[in-house]
Amino acid sequence: MVSVHSTSTQEQIAYGISNFRNRDAAHLPNLFRRIYGDHYLAAEVYDPNAYRDANAAGTCRSLVAHGADGWPVGHLGILDSAPDTGVRELGQGVVDPGHRTQGLLGLLIARCIQVADSDPTCCGLFGAALTNHVFSQRALWKADFVDVGFEIGFVPARMMQIEAAGAGPTATVLQYRPLDDAPTKVAYLPSAYSDLMLALYDQLHLSRAFATSDQPLDKAGHSQIEAIDLPRFDLVRINVHRIGADLEAQVAAAVHSAKVQGRTMVQLALALNSPSTDAAVEAMRTAGFWFGALLPRWMGDDALLMQRAIGEPWFGGIELFTNDAKALLRFVQEDASRQKVLA
Q1: 277-286 and 247-260 are packed helices; what angle lies between their axes, rounded to 10 degrees?
Q2: CATH 3.40.630.30 for the 2-122 domain, yes or no
């Protein structure tokens, strides 16, 4: 256990931050219920056994903050959520409302970075901060995370019934902190987004062997895509592992299925490892997709997140902490405005 102190204008409180212990499992679900009711993004946070199983398997590394009485008052997990486990997500973060003015989230983030940085298999960390307030965005920014994009309409309104409820779904701002570089990796940048993506690489201090993406869709074979239905988020996520001549047809089928199932958003992650990247991105833009985020190392190689709404995209209620995020949102909104015209 690591003992840390947090200061406020009124008092100083000592917290113990430790790896997950089995006895924590019974108490952690109540932390999430106090803020999110039974509608938190990940249903497993309400299952005590899920903490034990995930930490035992290594798919989640939980850091738990304990108050002076030994009870859990905060949690943050290092999660395997990307297609490639070299990058991890800081997620399932929660702080007891009675301890929120103590900088506890920042302490948990700092401790998670230390743990991840000591793991030679981890090359970077993502955070997905809610945009109905700036608290978590600010905490990640202070820990040197860079704004790299958005998941628009990601959190259904029903998940926000207790705290900061809005008229529509809540977006997240994606933030990334690299832990190492990969300068020899080739990244084929699409012409529509190359200037923006080069600027993001510069902010991240990442080097790549950038290459011209000037080939048509590969007619030598089929596309390899993976469509993942996420009904809890009203979302379908598509991972494109190989670009083939039938990319448009396969994605169109996945979008049609999402509509039939009542989903409201479709995300598409495209690996930037093919000279056909530009042709693929233009095909997806014609199909109504727009810029979401740069995802370093997301699929082993870097990836581009694109997204489209089934219906009108919801940009209401977004509050952002950094000027960079505000400028990035303006770009995303302008790009998304094409969807209605194309539809």
Answers
A1: 40
A2: yes
Q: What is the model's pTM?
A: 0.92
Q: What is the mean pLDDT of the chain?
A: 92
Type of residue at 267: Q
**60 is written with which tokens?**
């989640």
The pLDDT value given to residue 38: 86
pLDDT at 22 over 90: yes
Of 81, 331, 63, 311, the C-alpha closest to 193 is 331
Q: Does domain 186-342 have CATH number 3.20.20.100?
A: no
The pLDDT, as a whole number, for residue 145 is: 98
